[in-house]
Amino acid sequence: MQASGIQSELAQRLLFLFLAIVIYRIGTFIPIPGISLAEVQRAINSGDVGNLSAFANLFSGGAMERMSIFALGVMPYISASIVMQLLSHMPGKLKELKNSGSTGRKKITQYTRYLAFAVALFQGISMCLLFRTAALYSGPAFWLIGGFSFAVGAIFLMWLGEQINERGIGNGISMLIMAGIVASMPRVFAGLITSAQAGDVATPLVLAIFAIILALFVVIVYMETAQRRIPIHYARQQAGMALGQNSPYLPLKVNLAGVIPVIFASAIMILLVAIFSFLSNVDIGFASFGRYMNIVATNLQSGQPVYIIIFALLIVGFAFFYTGLVFENKELADDLKKSGAFIQGVRPGKATADYIDKVQNRLTLVGALYVAAVVIVPEVFNMNSSNQVLLQFGGASILIIVVVAMDFVQKVQAMRMSTQYESLMKKSHLGRRRN
User: Fold this and answer.
1) Model confidence over 310-346: pLDDT tens digits?
2) Could you give the angle at which helices 172-198 and 260-279 cross, rounded to 10 degrees?
3) What pLDDT does 49 receive?
């Protein structure tokens, strides 16, 4: 009964995840009030809003080009989370709340939601100002109603992600981002094949694109499973190991931060483009102000050298930042000491913690450079090509798909192993009762 209960729970969680993604995809086809979709398409095709649409469409599964209520995706929530995590590590009230236990963390989560709504409202209004030529009615009413609609959609997705965390499988926010990217894949590849058949894209270029994508998949899978194994030893009286048995080791992942640095960096880039796009539409009496802001926004467009440099630096920075949040070298060293384990040539305690921290920092650097390279290589390709398939399905997209999918499979396997373990325990218990 217990094993079948776990199996039933797995099925229920999978069903909830499926329904949540269906709801998300339906929402991407619901436009905000008072918008002409024909004018939106004209503006996108003409390149008037390329700065913002290229970013938003990447993580929203095409919701941006439909001016959907979900066009902002979960990026406002991620931006707010970054700000709150940074502030909670600085001296002040937030740091006190963070260290005050579960009650304090709940309070920080509440503040994060408020900030996420404010960020979403700002980005929503910026989007409406950018597409003001597509408005069916003029004046503040359009960007106020539209901005509020975008903000409500973003907050709903934030809530939906939290529900997936509690009642589904995997990280809810990451699953929604992956769902949006995967939803764009058929259209992107169909467009590429159609262009090749029409002669607009050379066949060698198509083959090169598929080769790059395949190579990225292989590299990502290899690097995401890569570990540095530090051998650990026990005192003789505690080891009890048979002769020839493999020594235990401490596994340290090369890319401990996973896909978080890419998501965080993307959220910051989207926010920066929204800010400068908004400022380019603000009249402050300085004739050239809007033009300068538009130049900045243009340079933050995917494929531009400035964008590539900033994006790579953000990825590396967030890799170290997030690893520092989740990796507890002191706690790990204390656990080794309490269990009687030690690293050969390293004193237990602080020396062990420092050694582990040094090794993990080196691994983090390697992992950060690998992630940056995976994301940047397609961007460099975009600089020298008019075909934007690698922008829509580039390194960032592939990395998110592979990492989130691997995490999802691991969680499903963990639940299935739990089921098998419970079944074995039940059979063992029944066998003992019969004897």
Assistant:
1) 999 999 999 999 898 888 888 888 888 888 888 888 8
2) 70
3) 59
How many independent structural domains does the chain possess? 1
**C-alpha dihedral sign at 257, 318, 58, 165:** positive
Q: If 0-12 CB within 10 Å is exposed, 13-18 middle and 19+ buried, where does residue 186 land?
A: exposed
User: CA-CA distance, 178 to 330, in Å (whole number)?
Assistant: 34
For residues 97 and 433, what is the distance between their CA atoms, to the nearest angstrom? 52
Which CATH number does the domain housing residue 277 bear?
1.10.3370.10
Tens of pLDDT, residues 368-423: 999 999 888 777 766 655 555 555 566 788 888 888 998 899 888 888 777 666 66
pTM score: 0.81
| C-alpha Rg value of the chain to the nearest Å | 25
Measured between alpha carbons, how far is 148 from 65 in angstroms, rounded to an integer? 18
Which of 345, 328, 330, 329 is CA-nearest to residue 232? 345
What residue numbers bound the domain in which 270 lies? 2-434
